[in-house]
Each structure stands twice: as C-alpha cells, then as structure tokens.
Amino acid sequence: MNLTDAQLWAAALGYLLPPLMAVVIQPRWSGPAKGLFMVLVAAGDGVGTAYFTHEFDGRPIVTDVLIAAVAIGVAYHTLWRPSGIAPRIERATSTAAGLPPAPPQAT
Length: 107
Description:
By secondary structure, the protein is mainly alpha-helical. The chain has four helices and no strands.
C-alpha cells in the first residue's frame, strides 16, 4: 500500500497534536467529551491536510481524517500519556470548576 503525501502529513500531524490538545482538554472532562474533541481535531487535521495537499475531494478527505484519528489515538496512548507529558499539560492548563485560576497570594 502506497500512502499519499496527504496521508503521511495527516499521520505526522496526528502524532504531534496530543500535547496541543492537552492545552484545551481539562482533566474533569468526561471520556466521551475528550473523545469527541479528538474526533473534531482529527477532522480538522484530515480536512486541512487534504486541502493543503490539493487532494480535497471525497474519499481522500475521509481517508485523511481516519488516518489522523488513528495517529492521534495511538500517539496519545503509546507516547504522550505514558510519558506523563499530556496529563501534566492538562493539569497545568486546567482551571478549577471552569473558573479562571486564582491570582497568586502576596507573601
């Protein structure tokens, strides 16, 4: 099976996206909410990749989106979560109960 440039770009971006996604994802989000966000990011990755590589029609778009989704999932579960990088980013960028972080206390 020969992969197109768009498919390779979708996979490469998919491997790099989990830390960026962790900036938005909050630890308190449910599993389905995190999954839905991942699907939306994969759709953006696949559609954008197809567009910028001039393969913007039917089947290549769907293939790019699916490749991006698999790459994001595999990268997160085999690299970014076990290393602790993605969870640390989620905790560092999270806010308590959706409120902005409290200002630092003067000492």
